[in-house]
Amino acid sequence: MNKTGLGFPFPIKNGNRSGVGMKFDAAAILNAMSEGVFAVNTDKKVIFANRALGRMLFHHDEAAADLQAVQQILSDSIFVPKHAALLDRLMFNRERVSHYETVLRDLNGMPIPVQIHIDLLLDEAGEVVGAVEIVRNLAPFSSEPGEKQSRPSGLRSLVGKSKKLLEMLDLVASASGSTATVLLEGESGTGKELIARAIHQMGPRREKPFIAVNCASLPDELLESELFGHMKGAFTTAIYDRPGRFELADHGTLFLDEIGDMSPTAQAKVLRVLQEHEFERVGGTKTIQVDVRIIAATNKDLTEEVHAGKFREDLYYRIRVFPIRVPPLRERKDDIFPLIKHFMAKFSRETGKQISNISPEALEYLLSYDYPGNVRELENMIEHAFVTSPGPTLSIEHLPKPVAPLSKQAKQAPLSSRKEGTLADQEKTLMLKALEKTDWNQAKAAEELGISRSTLWRRLKEYDIKIPK
């Protein structure tokens, strides 16, 4: 092989004529593979990336991947210290590795669970000049050309790139690969049902039903019937046999929202299903067996509920096999700006109003608010503004009066005096401020903005922002 180990043509025997060879370019063969392939030199600089890796990371089908962009993305995800040390060890000991599982991120910052095979690249003298990695996408959703995003449909409206959100999405990716019981803990309005649906859609039961029930919305006597079903005549209004949510979710997923509001009686019966995988309908004697994956959610501190005797300790440990904390919006402030853009685009489509601008005062107000209602509250605020604004700009007077005051810091901060502009103009301004604040250090600026370096690099390219040398 030559020093890249990839552009070297090699002979392949023609099956019909022994000894007669045909020359093929290695890169062309690698581009025909369905798995992603990339190669690095001994300094871990990407020297080749095939078409399938481009589809996986960028969701396009161009003949050749942009190596600089690939380097940026891999530097943010796969070239972490652990992986870098593994490559160093393999090159030093002249080893290879198979079935190595890790997570890399695509251009949107979304986690992709992958399995990697690593082999060495040798020159003609047999010296190690790098490594080639074959990347198999373990996610059950497709990233074929023309697909809008690699996110599963349940996560496509979960907008943001903040560190806390991406850490949570890593857990979501891990949970989706199993059938373990998941407990989603977080405040109202953070998107727990959205995440539950995504875990189901990415998981092995995605072809089976996803059934949701809100345990707080039904009185005790109705919740039991809703979960387990009832027989005709079991109570006054039971005029026919009715299956419950457990039966409907058989071999699929049952989402128990606000499980902390469930009565002790219902808790005991749910515990039995989790332990024995069986139950009886209300008023029935026949034992029904089910195979159901449980995803539960709560906005309460169940540890305190257990200590207070309001929630069964044995059920708590049964549902908390894989806990995921969903962070409130006030802990992921860096996601507010992209969420504003997302909701403005959404309501612009739904209402037909061409509103693409937001005043500096309104934007600063929205960025400073603490959102006790989380993402749902922000969405409602933008929808209210679309109803009241004639367009083309959302101003502070179009926003609803909040249920919580602005933070002390926001009250003291002077409102921006810059001119109104499009969201793109304001995003560009925010990036320039972060770059100037960090002395044009892209890694620090990306951290300041709560985005990955690859995302910042792509934005700089889009806005034609030149980094001073």
Task: List strands and helices in order, with pairings.
Elements: E1 10-13, E2 21-24, H1 26-31, E3 36-41, E4 46-49, H2 51-58, H3 67-76, H4 81-93, E5 97-105, E6 111-122, E7 128-137, H5 163-176, E8 182-185, H6 192-202, E9 210-214, H7 220-228, E10 229-230, E11 242-243, H8 245-248, E12 253-257, H9 264-276, E13 278-280, E14 287-289, E15 293-298, H10 302-307, H11 313-319, E16 322-325, H12 336-351, E17 357-358, H13 360-368, H14 374-388, E18 393-394, H15 408-412, E19 421-422, H16 423-437, H17 442-449, H18 453-462
Parallel strand pairs: 8-15, 8-16, 9-12, 12-15, 17-18
Antiparallel strand pairs: 1-2, 3-4, 3-7, 5-6, 6-7, 10-11, 13-14, 17-19
Helix pairs in contact: 3-18, 5-6, 12-14, 16-17, 17-18
Explain the overall architecture.
This protein is an alpha/beta fold and 469 residues long. The protein has 3 domains: 10-137, Beta-Lactamase (2-Layer Sandwich); 153-327, 3-Layer(aba) Sandwich (Rossmann fold); 330-462, Helicase, Ruva Protein, domain 3 (Orthogonal Bundle), CATH 1.10.8.60. 38% of the residues lie in helices and 19% in strands. The chain is built from 18 helices and 19 strands. The chain has helices at residues 26-31, 51-58, 67-76, 81-93, 163-176, 192-202, 220-228, 245-248, 264-276, 302-307, 313-319, 336-351, 360-368, 374-388, 408-412, 423-437, 442-449, 453-462, and strands at 10-13, 21-24, 36-41, 46-49, 97-105, 111-122, 128-137, 182-185, 210-214, 229-230, 242-243, 253-257, 278-280, 287-289, 293-298, 322-325, 357-358, 393-394, 421-422. It is globular. Mean pLDDT is 79; it is low at 1-22, 140-150 and 404-421.
